Amino acid sequence: MSAFFRAYPLLRPALFALEPETAHALTLTALQRLHDLGLTRRAPTPGRPVELMGLKLANGVGLAAGLDKNGAHIDALAGLGFGFMEIGTVTPRPQAGNPLPRLFRLSPAEALINRMGFNNDGLDAFLANVRRSRYQAHGGILGLNIGKNADTPMEKAADDYLAGLSAVYPHADYVTINISSPNTKNLRSLQGADELSQLLCRLGEARDELASRHGRRVPLAVKIAPDLDESQIDAIAELLPRYGIDGVIATNTTLSRDAVRGLRNADQAGGLSGPPVREMSLRVIERLRRSAGSSLAIIGVGGITEGRHAADKIAAGADAVQLYTGLVYRGPALVNDCVAALAPGR
User: Fold this and answer.
1) Is 181 a catalytic residue?
2) For the chain, which residues make up each domain, given as ranges?
3) Candidate list 133, 180, 181, 273, residue with the active-site label
4) Cα(50)–Cα(59) distance, rounded to whole angstroms?
């Protein structure tokens, strides 16, 4: 582990003195510089190998989408030791996202609120970055996360997802359909049984055609919210296998503020992530596994700030986990901690 990784707890106060989005960009720039200088490792942290949606992972600890929206730092982030990584969310056309400020720390809860709004440079720039990276050539597993543009009417949302799927398919080890961000108006309505059924039917048909065209079947996952009730979770667990969806990412951010009431920034609009989502995510994972049995791969996300939280996700029924907010508060050492916690004999 590089000196930068070990020094993160000392650097964090200086980063937290900056506006959160500025600190995020600065951290990625520093990590990229270290990579360019050859000061980050290339291989994933040794751990328990995992098979996920037919893909072989060196370890079961992944990077969640959102941290590298444009895929501009794939190789640099790979140096943190992840067993797989997911980048995006990308939309067909570039969009600026919501007005600043749109990212807020709730430090006493080690949480974040964001209302980024799928800010990204669009598919062309995204795919140029993916093609430029060497991560997959060295055996890395890369998921590409797709969404809809904010100004695309909901009745045409499927068109955006189909455009995204067609574009990213040749370059992805798996594709995630993000229908659970709270920061694109009405997007979560796509989690309703009727709406989801219609969307998945079209995506399934498109994937069959793409598999035939490209000679390989790329797994599809759907990312869902933690705010679903049991009947909604059961409906999703029944629908996804019906349309050939391989996995589910549980979960995205929450709109609930129950766990952070009274904290500074708690009333900001957007999705809440970090420890306040931990139990919500576990509840969704447990219900999904109970309802779907072994028919779905489950990636557990939300509130992982130490290795035992990753192990809790696996115990609840997840096959692998992803990190994001925990990295902001704990730094790169969190990856090693989680990989160790998932190792045999722990």
Assistant:
1) yes
2) 40-341
3) 181
4) 6
